[in-house]
Amino acid sequence: MIASREETSSPGGPPGNGGGTVTGPGAADLLRDLAGTGRDLRRGGFSRHMFTDAEMALREWFVAEASARGLSVEVDRNANLWAWWVPADVGLTERAVVTGSHLDSVPGGGAFDGPLGVVSALRAVDLLRAAGVRPRRPLGLVVFAEEEGGRFGVPCLGSRLLAGSTSRAEALALRDLDGVSLAEAAARVGLDASRIGPDPERMDRIGCFVELHVEQGRGLVDLGEPLAVASSVLANGRWGFRFTGEGNHAGATPMDSRADPLLPAAHVVLAARRVAAAGDSLRATVGKLIPRPGGTNVVASSADLWLDARGPDMQRTRRMVEEITTAAREAAEVEGCGLEVRQEAANTEVHFDAVLRDQIRDLLTSREAQARTGSRDVPLLATGAGHDAAVLAAAPGGRPVPTAMLFVRNPTGVSHSPAEHAEDDDCERGAAALALVLGRLLVEGAQPS
Amino acid sequence: MIASREETSSPGGPPGNGGGTVTGPGAADLLRDLAGTGRDLRRGGFSRHMFTDAEMALREWFVAEASARGLSVEVDRNANLWAWWVPADVGLTERAVVTGSHLDSVPGGGAFDGPLGVVSALRAVDLLRAAGVRPRRPLGLVVFAEEEGGRFGVPCLGSRLLAGSTSRAEALALRDLDGVSLAEAAARVGLDASRIGPDPERMDRIGCFVELHVEQGRGLVDLGEPLAVASSVLANGRWGFRFTGEGNHAGATPMDSRADPLLPAAHVVLAARRVAAAGDSLRATVGKLIPRPGGTNVVASSADLWLDARGPDMQRTRRMVEEITTAAREAAEVEGCGLEVRQEAANTEVHFDAVLRDQIRDLLTSREAQARTGSRDVPLLATGAGHDAAVLAAAPGGRPVPTAMLFVRNPTGVSHSPAEHAEDDDCERGAAALALVLGRLLVEGAQPS
């Protein structure tokens, strides 16, 4: 397949082609191959949750694309997919340059969050080969599992397990909304979850990690630039609130005889906005709220909601959550409802490796790179979104992995929504930039940080 | 089967047995036959929605029980089930005495709301026969379809179609949450929905209707009485609110750049409580609220909620809904969200037939009845719950159907919840009272009202 693509290539073509033979489909073409998989007809966009039919189809697609490029593919003990390019003359002890992202989505998500980083990695392999780059260390392409936490509730589950940020016991206790455990879900698709857990040997093979991602804000579109390098990721966490009251008949129950858990739940939605808006760079969101039993003519007996909270650091994030929790407790008491609050995730803020960041920025602002990517400047952008890259950068114990991220312009500034977008040219610019960065790292290595 | 039950009967037994041979299982025994059907393991209680496996199993059970009593069973054009006892010497032109209720439930509902009226109707047939009653007019037992509106959103759908309160076109436009139409759902269980719609001939055959129901409040338990007669039903309606905003990333989207539809939705929950609590006998409930896409790390793009509103009359109910809608519009505007409000149902208040009501009350406070039912008084109770009886009493056009309801004590006062309850003895007292009322109506007929 690769051979036939090279035969059909032409000298013009995508902006990323630095003079070598243009090979195969562009990043946006690869993305279009996925456009029919995991459509969510009710929500719009895509719902591609771990081990669902849609996500398994995307995994098969990745295996086929990587295999067609002669890469060797494996699934690690935590369901992450890896494709390796290990040139014959490269020593097995050399640490690898790794790139990749994820293929799963939030419910009703967009086409770019995750897949753009995966297709760009595949495209970068084609561009590197067309440019005649001869790696001195292995290149790994990785597809992390359950980055969005859309099925089992823990975002970046695959990278967290790999890095040891989530334990084996924590993972084995996870169940989806239908009560299916992670191990059961894995077994149903023929994967063995018995070896799930931290993978220090694999971590040790990663020399550095570069993740390309669609931007999830308006930074680049406002600056008129196609590409950015990440500076940092906000501290973030997720808290689950369960209010319990007394389920009853909506018509027969007088207003003063109610213990309706949806009342304090509504107060939390408003308190989250009030407290976060009053702070600096704070974010607080309730996006999931489930009254039970959920009948129109029934006073709910319980209401579950999840608070997504982010801030410049964990201390300020926790202070905000405490303030919202206080409002929740007061509202629950007024209504005669019970309240349980549990922390489901908490990730400290991450500042990406400064040396790698500057090395990448210097490279991408070189004249040669500007010609290929159309960038005049490559700004540094902070982000409020969590990423597998941030998990690897903050891996507990052992050696920290030098980690970097590239962002590709999103004209809507919207993400986690079907409105998320990136233009074809910008996708190809991103892949070209990624290829330049990987090429440099594969030949010269990362500077020690 | 009936014969063998009579053979095994004994002279003691249930309170309803007025000296004749005791026949078969009591009302509570019949109810226990249903205890394994339609359990909702996630919500607790029962979920028995129209044409689901559970509801079809309950229909089969009713057909078997009615057939075992020698009743002739039919399904009407609107999926309501009918069982007829037409003594050989009764003229076909005589209008029938009809009793019954429903077998469907709200999501996660209790065991009594609906089924108690159906099992009491079957039990009343046994008691009438044991007492040697010789009907001068037909007795109809009816199981109305989709009383709770749990699948297609319109409560009392079966009785409303029968009575012409919901049109054929309105019914055919209904779809469940999975997008399945009423006609498709009917076809899947082998029912033909092509003849759905008003059924004036069948309506004309109903001389009077008596529905027994578990009480959905604390009226009887506070009075220390087992049985009541209904006076009236609150006006009630359902309004759907859809807020639309901009779905986005929970981490990457600053608080001042959001159009989050869950914010105005939360304001509606609080406004409903505030406005209803300030009025007299007003009820306003949000029991169903769905943010979409519903991811924890996603600012919702839309939020649907349903307002259940009730009041002493339609005017005061509408005024309350208008006040809540105003609050909704203001909150939507502040957030930059869109709002659509649609009325899904509106039923005027119902005062049950005064002559039939007093006739029943006189009968049930007689010394003979008191001995059988343990009632000292049979109070008149108003209810905030809607019922098929109220639909028949308020049938548009034609002859109004004289309609009455009996309530059976509920020690928890809770309904539409697994906590709903009635003691075995009270169930049997209810069936005995129903048998007395039906016996009188079958022999003497209803007084002209």
Task: Write a concise synopsis of the structure shown.
The structure is a homodimer of 449-residue chains. Chain A has 449 residues and is an alpha/beta fold. Chain A has helices spanning 2-7, 27-33, 53-68, 115-130, 157-163, 168-172, 182-188, 200-205, 219-223, 262-278, 314-335, 354-364, 367-373, 388-393, 424-444; strands spanning 72-75, 81-85, 96-102, 139-144, 206-214, 227-233, 235-244, 248-249, 283-292, 298-299, 302-311, 338-347, 350-351, 380-383, 403-408.
Strand-helix topology:
The structure is a homodimer of 449-residue chains.
Chain A: H1 2-7, H2 27-33, H3 53-68, E1 72-75, E2 81-85, E3 96-102, H4 115-130, E4 139-144, H5 157-163, H6 168-172, H7 182-188, H8 200-205, E5 206-214, H9 219-223, E6 227-233, E7 235-244, E8 248-249, H10 262-278, E9 283-292, E10 298-299, E11 302-311, H11 314-335, E12 338-347, E13 350-351, H12 354-364, H13 367-373, E14 380-383, H14 388-393, E15 403-408, H15 424-444
Parallel strand pairs in A: 3-4, 3-5, 5-15, 6-14
Antiparallel strand pairs in A: 1-2, 2-4, 6-13, 6-15, 7-11, 7-12, 8-10, 9-11
Helix pairs in contact in A: 2-4, 4-15, 10-11
How would you portray this structure in words?
The structure is a homodimer of 449-residue chains. The first copy, chain A, has 449 residues and is an alpha/beta fold. Chain A is 35% helix and 21% strand. In chain A, strands 1, 2, 3, 4, 5, 6, 13, 14 and 15 form a nine-stranded mixed sheet that branches. In chain A, strands 9-11-7-12 form a four-stranded antiparallel sheet, covered by helices on one side. In chain A, helix 4 packs across helix 15 (424-444) and helix 10 runs antiparallel to helix 11 (314-335). The two termini of chain A are 40 Å apart. Chains A and B meet through strand 8, helix 10, strand 9, strand 10 and strand 11 of A and strand 8, helix 10, strand 9, strand 10 and strand 11 of B.
